[in-house]
C-alpha cells in the first residue's frame, strides 16, 4: 500500500496526484468485505461531486455498496477498464482498480482524511 494515500471512515482512498487532481478508489479492506466484485457503476465525466456524497456503486456477489466521494471536485476521468474487468477492484484496489480521477475544488479537504497509518490502525481495531 502506498503510505501517501488518504482514507475515509467509509473505506475510500484518495491519492493526491500533485497537480490539483486526485485519484479515488475503495480500500483493500473494503474489497475484502465485499467479496468478488461483479459490477462498478462509474460516475459521469464532468460530473461535480461533493465530499461525503455518494458518487459510485460497487456490486459484488454478496452485496452492493455505495462509494462516497472523499473530496469535492469535477470528474475528469473514469476507469473504463472496470466496465469489462470489475475484478480489478479486488485484484489491484490501489492500482488498476481505481474508480475515478477528479479535479479538486478544495484541496484542503485532503487534510480532513486519515493518513494510511491511522487508517490501518482503525481497521485493525475493528477486526
UniProtKB/TrEMBL annotation:
Binds 1 lipoyl cofactor covalently. The keyword Metal-binding does not apply. GO terms for cellular component: cytosol; glycine cleavage complex. CDD domains: GCS_H. Its cofactor is (R)-lipoate. GO terms for biological process: glycine decarboxylation via glycine cleavage system; protein lipoylation. InterPro entries: 2-oxoA_DH_lipoyl-BS, Biotin_lipoyl, GCV_H, GCV_H/Fam206, GCV_H_sub, Single_hybrid_motif. Keywords: Lipoyl. Residues 21-103 form the Lipoyl-binding domain. The modification N6-lipoyllysine is found at residue 62. The glycine cleavage system is composed of four proteins: P, T, L and H. The glycine cleavage system catalyzes the degradation of glycine. The H protein shuttles the methylamine group of glycine from the P protein to the T protein. Belongs to the GcvH family. HAMAP family: GcvH (MF_00272). This is Glycine cleavage system H protein. The gene is gcvH.
Amino acid at each position: 500500500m502506498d503510505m501517501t494515500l488518504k482514507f475515509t471512515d467509509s473505506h475510500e482512498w484518495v491519492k493526491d496526484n500533485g497537480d490539483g487532481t486526485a485519484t479515488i478508489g475503495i480500500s483493500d479492506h473494503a474489497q475484502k468485505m465485499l467479496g468478488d466484485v461483479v459490477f462498478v457503476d462509474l460516475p459521469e465525466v464532468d460530473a461535480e461531486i461533493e465530499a461525503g456524497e455518494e458518487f459510485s456503486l460497487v456490486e459484488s456477489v454478496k452485496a452492493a455498496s455505495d462509494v462516497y466521494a472523499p473530496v469535492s471536485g469535477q470528474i475528469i476521468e473514469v476507469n473504463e477498464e472496470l466496465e469489462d474487468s470489475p475484478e480489478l477492484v479486488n485484484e489491484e484496489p490501489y492500482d488498476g482498480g481505481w474508480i475515478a480521477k477528479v479535479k479538486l475544488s478544495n484541496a484542503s479537504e485532503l487534510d480532513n482524511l486519515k493518513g494510511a497509518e491511522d487508517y490501518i490502525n482503525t481497521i485493525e481495531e475493528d477486526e
